[in-house]
Amino acid sequence: MGTVVLYGSVSVDGFVADDDDQPGPLFDWLTGGDVPLDDGGVLRVSRASYDHVRPYWDAIGVTVVGRRVFDLTDGWDGVPPSGVAHVVVVTHRPPPDGWDPAAPFTFVGGVEEAVEVAQGLAGDRVVEVAAGDVGGQVLAAGLVDEVRMDVAPVVLGSGRRFFGPVAAPHLLADPDLVVAGERVLHLRYRVARAPQTATDR
């Protein structure tokens, strides 16, 4: 199975959006450089950010999001973002009225099912889980292999937390990748696994 990655742009105080679900300057780094990040030419980043982000984005097979993100983006008009092949949406509500059932989106009721479905679709490619409430639930369920953060130099003060509702401690390994871009610091942490005891085996 592919690696499960919790990913998102985040403020230095740990938020992925403000109280009105707006990212504000968190994504400034995506348009502040001179190297095109995608074919559309809208996203332009520093060379350091491109060399870090583009290979990661190319490795993503499936993205898992919550219904909030799906609704805020209007379901990306049925086209998964950033060239991803499929999106799994965690929700207890049905798809919107008029939703095209042929669109590469799957709607499931919980995070465990979402990761299982996503891994089946992704094969050996990366399963990306959007940071926020659903991402925090996936971490709490012990299903995240690594955490990737694009840290923007801004303090939002309040809003939507990167790790959502996580309340208990979760150990991460030392960062094994640190890349300084323009208006962003890219970090990667492996999730530390608790050592097995004799009773666990």
Structure report:
The chain is α/β, with parallel strands linked by helices. It has one domain: Dihydrofolate Reductase, subunit A (3-Layer(aba) Sandwich), CATH 3.40.430.10. Helices cover 19% and strands 28% of the residues. The strands form 3 sheets. The protein has an 8-stranded mixed beta sheet with strand order 7-6-5-8-1-9-12-11, with helices on both faces. Strands 2-10 form a two-stranded antiparallel sheet. The two termini are 21 Å apart. 36% of the residues are buried. The model has no long low-confidence stretch (mean pLDDT 93). Residues 112-169 form the Bacterial bifunctional deaminase-reductase C-terminal domain. It comes from Cellulomonas triticagri. One of its GO terms (molecular function) is 5-amino-6-(5-phosphoribosylamino)uracil reductase activity.
Task: Please outline the helices and strands.
Elements: E1 4-11, E2 15-17, E3 35-36, E4 44-45, H1 47-59, E5 60-66, H2 67-72, E6 86-90, E7 105-108, H3 111-122, E8 126-130, H4 133-140, E9 146-152, E10 160-161, E11 177-181, E12 184-190
Parallel strand pairs: 1-8, 1-9, 5-6, 5-8, 6-7
Antiparallel strand pairs: 2-10, 3-4, 9-12, 11-12
